[in-house]
Amino acid sequence: MARKQQSTPSYGPPLPSSHHLVRLGAPQGSNNYLCVDAEGIERLVEVSKPLKRNKMLFIMRGDFAVINLFPTVADEKTRLVGEILHILDKGDVKEWKKSENWPRGFEENLEPTSRECQAEEKMECEEQSQMEESESRP
């Protein structure tokens, strides 16, 4: 007998109020990641259990994700505030941008890719070496 197919929830453009779109930052260990939302608020979130079970899950710094925030109590002091529900792939990001629901905060401060960083570092090194050569000449 075949296993029943479970319907996967949609993480398309109109998100429920409890979900937020964020950019993932540096991993903090034990499946915890720093993330920044479109307003610039930094939060610590964990990978949800259904995502942990996925054997081929790759999370990279700069990826976009949908998170769910935990209910908070005023006197509770905890750093962990939510869980990652879904990692957006390139197709998901295109869908969000086409629907014009993409947050403006993510458009303004796009991080350079590693190739761009390497090119900038190379140019800075070349400029430094040229300056040193010109200073050493009489």
TrEMBL record:
GO terms for cellular component: nucleus. The lineage of its organism: Eukaryota, Fungi, Dikarya, Basidiomycota, Agaricomycotina. It comes from the Eukaryota. Residues 1-22, 102-138 are annotated as: Disordered. InterPro entries: EIF1AD, NA-bd_OB-fold. Residues 1-10 have a biased composition (Polar residues). Residues 102-122 have a biased composition (Basic and acidic residues). Residues 123-138 have a biased composition (Acidic residues). This is S1-like domain-containing protein.
